[in-house]
């Protein structure tokens, strides 16, 4: 007989959390709080927890909705694990995820933060990366099922991707024979000028069919084709070389990213004429916002192409404001930077490098703003910084509806 579990809450990755008859915590994907589900036989038991799959939903939770994307049910797509949850409930779940991490990992006495809802619940992504499964007959280009990550199902339409990307995909997939023979990944991306980028990653010979692909596409003038060898740097192989680095990190939800950055910069207050660090600054969007408010910004990022583009972008700043861009790992150059009056950090999901944490902790700045893509590493770093800082404000931003991703901004004041 299948074990019946009632889902109490959602874990950080979006899986439902319940308790089995033996008291063991069980994580069940695609469930919502309040669901009563029968578990499929073959529950994977670990020492202190278990992982199960839904055999049957006996009683749906109050926030359960019908997922609109056909790939969710037909192909068990793993890309949007919260589609079965109403949007209001998604927001509450993300608030709880951040608050739980801050209290449990960070040991901080903080409530669940306020969350800023997304501008759009669907069609917000400006890039999508597809994977390629070769062999077993025809080549499949698409996404992974959540429960079979080694397999690939052919993508028809991704409901969180911008309509322009999906229009491009409908054209591109008719010409897969023009891509490199050892194609492993295919990324479609919109840049901020509206151009469309097709980035083919493969091993072996370069992409020789790029010109033919571009010629076969409608509105080909707005399409740029890149070839990225495995473990190598991408380069333009068809179309104009615009200088925009499509392989550099840029948020997939441009509108929400700008809201997040603007609010984060606002929290630094007036920094006119002061030196401000912008660590992990990417293509310089935050640095520009700071400089336009009169700050003397030192922006550091490891991506040389992103820094090169940031240096050449046209920027108008008031007298006293300035930008200096450095291509390096932040932890390697801290000792060479001028002492900051304030700092803004936006590290990758792994969080701050220990050397960066030490520098900020041992020589506190007046105000520090931390933009995080992962609540767990944010909580860890805030706990490490709590020696010389206190957290004054935390706000979450729903940058990726239908997924468990959430961006959080924490404002700290030096002791």
Structural features, described:
This protein has 415 residues and is of the alpha/beta class. Helix content is 23%, strand content 27%. The protein has helices spanning 70-74, 87-104, 163-172, 210-216, 254-267, 285-292, 304-312, 330-333, 354-362, 375-385, and strands spanning 4-6, 9-10, 16-19, 25-28, 36-39, 44-45, 49-51, 54-59, 114-116, 127-133, 140-143, 153-154, 183-190, 196-202, 223-229, 235-238, 275-279, 296-301, 322-327, 342-345, 367-372, 389-397, 407-414.
Helical stretch tally: 10
Number of strands: 23
Give the strand content: 25-35%
Placed side by side, the strands forming the largest sheet appear as 9-22-23-21-20-17-18-19
Mean pLDDT: 94
Topology at a glance:
Layout lengths: L3 E3 L2 E2 L5 E4 L5 E4 L7 E4 L4 E2 L3 E3 L2 E6 L10 H5 L12 H18 L9 E3 L10 E7 L6 E4 L9 E2 L8 H10 L10 E8 L5 E7 L7 H7 L6 E7 L5 E4 L15 H14 L7 E5 L5 H8 L3 E6 L2 H9 L9 E6 L2 H4 L8 E4 L8 H9 L4 E6 L2 H11 L3 E9 L9 E8 L1
Parallel strand pairs: 4-7, 9-22, 14-15, 17-18, 17-20, 18-19, 20-21
Antiparallel strand pairs: 1-5, 2-3, 3-4, 5-8, 6-7, 10-11, 10-13, 11-12, 13-14, 15-16, 21-23, 22-23
Short description:
The chain has 415 residues and is α/β, with parallel strands linked by helices. It is 23% helix and 27% strand. It has helices at 70-74, 87-104, 163-172, 210-216, 254-267, 285-292, 304-312, 330-333, 354-362, 375-385; strands at residues 4-6, 9-10, 16-19, 25-28, 36-39, 44-45, 49-51, 54-59, 114-116, 127-133, 140-143, 153-154, 183-190, 196-202, 223-229, 235-238, 275-279, 296-301, 322-327, 342-345, 367-372, 389-397, 407-414.
């Amino acid at each position: 007989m299948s074990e019946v579990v009632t889902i109490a809450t959602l874990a950080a990755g979006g899986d439902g959390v319940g308790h089995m008859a033996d008291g063991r915590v069980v994580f069940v994907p695609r469930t919502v709080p309040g669901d009563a589900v029968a578990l499929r036989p073959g529950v994977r038991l670990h020492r202190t927890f278990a992982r199960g799959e839904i055999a049957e939903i006996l009683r749906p939770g109050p926030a359960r909705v019908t997922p609109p994307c056909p790939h969710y049910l037909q192909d068990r797509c793993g890309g949007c694990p919260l589609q079965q949850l109403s949007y209001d409930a998604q927001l509450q779940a993300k608030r709880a995820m951040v608050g739980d991490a801050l209290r449990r990992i960070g040991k901080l006495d903080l409530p669940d933060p306020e969350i800023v809802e997304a501008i759009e619940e669907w069609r917000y992504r400006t890039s999508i990366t597809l994977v390629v499964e070769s062999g077993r007959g025809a080549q499949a280009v698409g996404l992974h099922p959540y429960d079979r990550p080694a397999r690939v199902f052919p993508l028809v339409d991704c409901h969180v991707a911008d309509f322009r990307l999906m229009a491009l995909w409908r054209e591109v997939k008719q010409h897969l024979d023009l891509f490199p023979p050892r194609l492993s990944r295919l990324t479609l991306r919109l840049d901020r000028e509206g151009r469309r980028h097709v980035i083919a990653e493969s091993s072996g010979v370069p992409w020789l069919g790029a010109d033919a692909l571009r010629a076969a596409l409608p509105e080909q003038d707005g399409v740029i084709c890149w070839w990225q060898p495995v473990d190598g740097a991408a380069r333009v192989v068809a179309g104009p070389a615009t200088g925009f680095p499509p392989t550099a990190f840029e948020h997939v939800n441009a509108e929400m990213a700008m809201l997040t950055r603007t609010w984060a910069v606002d929290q630094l207050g007036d920094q006119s004429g002061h030196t401000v660090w912008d660590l992990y600054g990417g293509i310089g969007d935050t640095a520009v916002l700071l400089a336009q408010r009169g700050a003397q910004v030192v922006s550091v990022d490891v991506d040389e192409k992103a820094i090169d583009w940031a240096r050449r972008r046209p920027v108008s700043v008031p007298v006293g404001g300035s930008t200096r861009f450095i291509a390096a790992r932040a932890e390697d150059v801290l000792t060479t930077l001028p002492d900051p009056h304030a700092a803004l950090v936006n590290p990758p999901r792994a969080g701050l490098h220990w050397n960066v944490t030490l520098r900020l902790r041992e020589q506190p700045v007046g105000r520090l703003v931390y933009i995080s893509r992962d609540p767990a590493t944010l909580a860890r770093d805030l706990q490490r910084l709590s020696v010389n800082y206190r957290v004054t404000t935390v706000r979450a931003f729903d940058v990726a509806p239908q997924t468990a991703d959430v961006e959080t901004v924490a404002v700290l004041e030096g002791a």
